[in-house]
Amino acid sequence: MRSSDSRSASTAHDEMAHRNAATTRHDVDEAWNKGNVDVYEESLAPDCIAHNPALPSDIQGRESLKQMVLAFRSALPDLHVTLDDIVADDDKVVTRWTATGTHQGWLLGLEPSHRTLIITGITIDRFADGQIVESWTYWDDSALRAIGWKGVGDDRYAGAGETSRG
User: For 3-146, which CATH class?
Assistant: First the structure.
């Protein structure tokens, strides 16, 4: 490969990573901070998958991810996610984030505690054709455990989308 070709490839690689990072920033602000999950129509592949070991199963598909965000926002109506760090390379974007909100509705089987929760985590998004096709999230669940959540094995756990006691 000639040096001008490698510079062009490097520039294209950097531009793609920059676009992917911008998409992640925009998604967090619109969906998580403002509740505008319609932003996912363009940024998430219809059959995307989200992995999170704190949840009982993977979240399959754009519509399921929208419902999960809305469930968290319902339980934490003042939810705000801050991106503390963002690193993009090739088809992956890694974010280190802090989420803060007041627990005012049912979430993960827990009745409202009216306490401010601070949850930190890391998410890795994998992109294809400008859309997120897969993500992995790992978060510190100590704030949830402090209000009584026992984790995935908790008998009260009814799923990430639970917003009311059934």
Answer: alpha beta
CB 64 within 8 A of CB 57: no
The mean predicted confidence, pLDDT, of the chain is: 87
Sign for the CA dihedral angle at 120, 135, 83, 38 comes to negative
Residue 5 has what pLDDT?
A: 55
88 burial (CB, 10 Å; 0-12 / 13-18 / 19+) is buried
> Regarding beta strands 131-139 and 44-51, do their DSSP bridges make them parallel or antiparallel, or are they unpaired?
parallel
Q: How many CB atoms lie within 10 A of CB 74?
A: 18
pTM for this predicted structure: 0.84
Domain ranges of the chain: 3-146
- Tens digits of per-residue pLDDT, 21-70? 999 999 999 999 999 999 999 999 999 999 998 888 899 999 999 999 99
Q: How far is CA 55 from the centre of its chain?
A: 13
Give the phi and the psi of residue 151 in degrees, each rounded to 5: 100, -170
The counts of H helices and E strands in the chain are: 4, 6
**Which structure tokens are listed for 116?**
């401010």
Q: Which of 62, 44, 31, 28 is nearest to 132 (CA)?
A: 44
By C-alpha distance, which of 144, 132, 166, 151 is closest to 54?
151
